[in-house]
Each structure stands twice: as structure tokens, then as C-alpha cells.
């Protein structure tokens, strides 16, 4: 009896109805939502976050290509998604093998060379979108990014950067022509870009001034070190940003311009065929040492005439005394000591009185 019940149980389980097989969920890339366009000279730069998710919220493991779409319209009225779908055309596609070279950090970049004016010279209105294509499906178009290119200025010329104790002053000459030969440039101000020495700004490098500056002068207070400055004319601070290409770099070194305190006094001690000089120490966090200068003169008293000043020691003296043996008997000398910081700033000179080394000690 027990065996019969067990057999009946397994028979009932084996005859149970299974559910219908479910089709695999398609892997559809999530549409881009942060496409941004900016004008750089006679080009349009597109940037957006690298696609990483599917419409199901899972990681997007494969991108086959990304297609860039563009519409060109003579009317400034923004397009709807339906209108854009009807009039847009493919500009280019970024294939999987080329995506790495088009990536900057978490962003993808694409540069377009669209028409800047209609045949009769009127502005054109451009709208962009991107579509991500996965292994088996593609996303819907991204957010629409409109832009109306302006007659932005050519790169400013005669860019100079000069450092002083207040900072770095950048000056330049306003461009007289626009990119793409569109006539007189539209200039609402200028963006200033700063990079370390010999480093070229990327398309994603932000200017150091969030708001375009007017005029042809800008003062920056960078960290100490070597820098390069570039300037670009801005037609519209955005969004979208409409600006010209960057100028040639102006190189400058910004350092500490504040000298250290001077030694309080210096005392000469005449020795045999030499003079030993002793001075008060200086307290400074960036002190590099001391320099000693010697001035020679001819004549005596009111008829004394200086004939030159030399640096007694090549480099910085680390101690607070130095014996000068390069002296001649019967000649008048005086010495000055300065403190020097690590930025090569010298303090004021502190002098001894005139001393004549006696011929007979």
C-alpha cells in the first residue's frame, strides 16, 4: 500500500503542467539624455556621457556603434521629436573600434563641420541627436540639442602673460575677423584658459572665468609654477556656448615675489689678508640662504669713487658668516649681505662701512 502511494505521488508530479517558455528580454540601450553642443570656431562639438545602461537598468555590455543625426533648418523654431525624425539625416557613425579614441574620461566627443550660413548668408539652425546601437537593438534618439552658430572671432593675437606680486596679467588683441570668413565677429567677451606648461587644453577643459570678461585684460592668481594661458573670443556664453578657437599660448612663471627680511646688521672683522664678515640670522620659512656683495673703490673719504660691485660667493651662503680672502691691501672695500628665499627673492642690502685693509696689520 505504501509503495502504491509513493508511485502515485511521483506520477502526479511528473504529469504537472509547466509554464510557457518566455522570450528573452531584448537588450536595448538606454537613450542618451545629456547631449550638449557647443561651437568652437567653425566647428560644432558634441559631448555626452558614455552609454552604460539598458532600458531595463542593467549594464550595457556591448555597443556596436553610435550614430550622429543632424537637421539643418532656416527657421529658429525648435523642432519636436517627430519633426526631427522626419527631417534629420545621418552625419556620421562612431564604430565600436573608434569609441575609445573618442572618449575623454566619462564623456564621448564628436566634432562636426556643418554649414554656418545659408547660400544667401543667413544663419542656419542646427539640431543634433545621437542613437546608440547595441548587439541586437538600438536606443531611441537622445535629447535634441539645438544650436545656431554665430560669427565667432578668430583666435586673439598678441596674447601676453606677465607676473608680478599681485598675480598674472593676461593681455591680448581683439580679433577683427570671424571664423569661416563670416565678416565682423560677434564678441560678447573672452574666455581665459590656463594649463600647466606644455599641456594643451582639451575640448572639455573649462575656462578659468565662468563669465566672459570684457576688455582685453584679465588678472589671474594661479598656484606658484609655470603656466600657459590661451584666450578665446565668445559670442554667447550659452547655453549653448558659442566661442572661437583658442589663441596661441603665452607662457609665464608665477612665483613668490615677497622678499624675506633683511639681516639686522653685518659686522666686519679684519684678519691677516682677509676680512671675516658676521651677520644676524633671519627667520623665514622659505629661507634659502644669504648672498654677500663686495664693492671696491679708489680714492679716500670724499674723493672715494666706486668702481664695481661683485658677488663674493657663487650661490647661497648657508651660514651667518663668511671670510673674504680676495682682498688687496690698502684698497677700500665695503660689503653687503642679503637674505634669499627659495623663489630667488633678495632682501634689502645691509652694508658695512668702508674698510681699508692695512698694509701692515
Describe this structure in words.
With 361 residues, this protein is mostly beta strands. It has 3 domains: 36-147, Immunoglobulins (Immunoglobulin-like); 157-254, Immunoglobulins (Immunoglobulin-like), CATH 2.60.40.10; 266-356, Immunoglobulin-like (Sandwich), CATH 2.60.40.10. The chain has 2 helices and 23 strands. The strands form 5 sheets. Strands 1, 2, 5, 6, 11, 13, 14 and 15 form an 8-stranded mixed beta sheet that branches. Strands 18, 19, 21, 22 and 23 form a 5-stranded antiparallel beta sheet that branches. Strands 4-3-7-8 form a 4-stranded antiparallel beta sheet, with no helix packed on it. Strand 21 (332-341) and strand 22 form a beta hairpin. The protein starts with a helix and ends in a 5-residue tail after the last strand.
Short structural summary:
With 361 residues, the protein is mainly β. It is built from two helices and 23 strands. The protein is elongated and about 115 Å long.
Layout of helices and strands:
Blueprint: H1 2-14, E1 36-40, E2 43-49, E3 65-73, H2 81-87, E4 89-95, E5 103-104, E6 107-112, E7 125-133, E8 145-147, E9 157-164, E10 167-173, E11 189-196, E12 217-220, E13 225-236, E14 242-243, E15 250-254, E16 266-271, E17 274-279, E18 287-298, E19 305-311, E20 321-324, E21 332-341, E22 350-351, E23 355-356
Parallel strand pairs: 1-14
Antiparallel strand pairs: 1-2, 2-6, 3-4, 3-7, 5-6, 7-8, 9-10, 10-12, 11-13, 13-14, 13-15, 16-17, 17-20, 18-19, 18-21, 21-22, 21-23
